[in-house]
């Protein structure tokens, strides 16, 4: 149950992280944001990132083995990175229609999945 909770919270946090880091690149297409300067965009991104931390911190706290969770610190980080790239790929396909996912992107993603496999592998 803690594993599902942790991964779910990490998924949600990564959605907010992706929106905070890359969502502002679509602001130019929105009428309300045409006159915003960089400072305003930074503050909007910070507000979105706050939501990310609201999910990220509890996910790591409850998921960490030393706190009774099921994952080591290394496992938590690799899960977060795999989720981050997954959410980013979905975000790119849905919101940035001009970006194309090429074969080398897929190969790179597969290497990240391999990293997850090796981090969780018991030797």
Structure, explained:
The chain has helices at 2-22, 38-63, 73-95, 103-120. The relative contact order is 0.15. It has 123 residues and is mostly helical. Helix 1 (2-22) runs antiparallel to helix 2 (38-63), helix 1 (2-22) crosses helix 3 and helix 3 packs antiparallel against helix 4 (103-120). It has one domain. 72% of the residues lie in helices and 0% in strands. It contains 4 helices and no strands. The chain crosses the membrane at residues 36-55, 76-96, 102-120. Keywords: Membrane, Transmembrane, Transmembrane helix. This is DMT family protein. InterPro entries: DUF486 (IPR007437).
Describe the secondary-structure layout.
Layout: H1 2-22, H2 38-63, H3 73-95, H4 103-120
Helix pairs in contact: 1-2, 1-3, 3-4
Number of helices: 4
Quick one: biggest sheet? none
Order of helices and strands: HHHH
Q: In one word, what is the shape? A: flat
Task: Estimate the mean pLDDT confidence.
Answer: 91
In angstroms, what separates the terminal alpha carbons? 25 Å
Query: Beta-sheet strand percentage?
Result: under 5%
What is the C-alpha radius of gyration, as a whole number of Å? 17 Å
Helix content: over 70%
Tally of structural domains: 1
Total strands: the figure is: 0
As residue ranges, the low-confidence spans are none
Class based on secondary structure composition and strand pairing:
mainly alpha
Protein name: DMT family protein
Keywords: Membrane, Transmembrane, Transmembrane helix
InterPro entries: DUF486 (IPR007437)
Transmembrane segments: 36-55, 76-96, 102-120
């Amino acid at each position: 149950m803690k594993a599902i909770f942790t991964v779910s919270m990490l998924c949600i946090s990564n959605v907010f992280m992706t929106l905070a880091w890359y969502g502002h690149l679509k602001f130019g297409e929105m009428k309300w944001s045409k006159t915003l300067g960089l400072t305003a965009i930074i503050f909007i991104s910070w507000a979105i990132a706050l939501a990310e931390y609201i999910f990220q911190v509890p996910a790591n706290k409850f998921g960490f083995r030393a706190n009774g969770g099921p994952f080591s610190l290394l496992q938590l980080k690799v899960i977060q990175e795999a989720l981050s790239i997954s959410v980013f790929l979905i975000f790119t396909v849905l919101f940035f229609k001009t970006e194309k996912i090429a074969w080398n992107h897929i190969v790179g993603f597969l290497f990240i999945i391999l990293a997850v496999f090796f981090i969780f592998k018991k030797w």
